[in-house]
Amino acid sequence: MSKLTQAELDSQAGAQQTDTAGSGTPDVAAGKLSAVFPSYARYDISLVKGKGTWVWDDKGNKYLDFTSGLAVTSLGHAPEKVGAKLKDQIDTLWHVSNLFHIPGQDRVANLLTENSCADQVFFCNSGAEANEAAIKLARRYHQKIKGVDRYEVITFEQSFHGRTLATLTATGQQKVKEGFLPLPAGFKTVPLHDLPALEAAIGGHTAAIMLEMVLAEGGVLEVEPEFLNAVVALCKKHGLLLIVDEVQTGMGRTGKLFAHQHYGIEPDIFTLAKGIASGFPAGLMLGKGYLRDAFSPGSHASTFGGTPLATAVMAATIETMLEDELPQRAEEMGKYLTGLLKEKLADCSFVKDIRGKGLLIGIECQSPAGDIVLAGQKKGLLFVTAGPNVLRLLPNLYVSKEEIDQAVDIVSELIHTYAKQANGEVSS
Ligand SMILES: *Cc1c(COP(=O)(O)O)cnc(C)c1O
Q1: Cβ burial 300-337 (10 Å sphere, 16+ → b, else e)
Q2: For a FRET experiment, which of 157, 287, 292, 299 has its CA 20 to 30 Å from that of 42?
């Protein structure tokens, strides 16, 4: 089935997924265990092709993709302009060591620093690695530049910062820590929006406060602006660095190039990954100029960070986003999408809240909503959850009104049906 030609895939496009029970990976179908570690709970779909907002599975079924690889393919699947730059670079130079100058890094760093409050950029390969770099930079700034014994990072409950040992310790969710003890020292987590708890957590060893502007994995929860202002004030008062994790919220997703720009604040450090390179693996840690000397030669490194290939894709992605004013588009389309959802679900008491920023949108339900995601797949729409009760919609930033109309029709119908069933069960 995976040998289908393009024409065959196209001719089958739109066919509904009817019977996939018991399929999955070929190995599983043959009764053997997959050679891949089972660390992901995977949906029973194998995606093999994508274009714009659409993806196809190995059976030729076509889906409207409102996941974008979890906020990664923000220019849509296989964006042509970026693809052309990638192909050019493939014929030119893939990789050289960071022992040499890499002109693509300066290009990307200039684009990002000209469009943000940051002055310096470090190149790595993922969100977790970017957050590790942020934590390391904060510690080293205090210890080497300021000469003080500060190392502790304060984070918030329901946050998500990654899966390395340090970043899962920073993450405010118990489930990512189970079975991985002992955790590294130097982290404290306090409830979000609890100012007294935050103040109480700050001590002589505190180096930084780290947070997301919208807790995406934690249920699409926006940080209250007043609380954010209080965090900024506490950082100033105690000499702490403010680290904003923009791995999911960055690169136009929320309606500004970086989500912190909605609030008029300037973090000392912020991190990027998901949407930065259209699906090519890359992460970035950005910081203010006064942090520059904390990462002196030899202090931190990454073999694959900012290769010629990665920086070509990043530069093309960023340039395309700026040229086509995609953050603004995300803002407009986000308003359109949430407006339609609110209209269609106004009478549905199963829906507790519809919220979001730009095209990072959450629908909070009264009870676990994972089954709605599975039902959506059968109707040809892909979306995900954010915690058990919240449905999360993350279309690419070029998504059209027609595609949004289609998706909202499917989602609202599914929720209405599911709500009726849930009510039926309660009353019977
Ligand atoms: C996805 C994510 C990460 C981790 O990124 P990886 O590339 O998977 O390591 C960190 N922080 C936030 C907010 C994320 O959404």
Answers
A1: bebebbbbbbbbbbbbbbbbbbeeeebbebbbebbebb
A2: 157
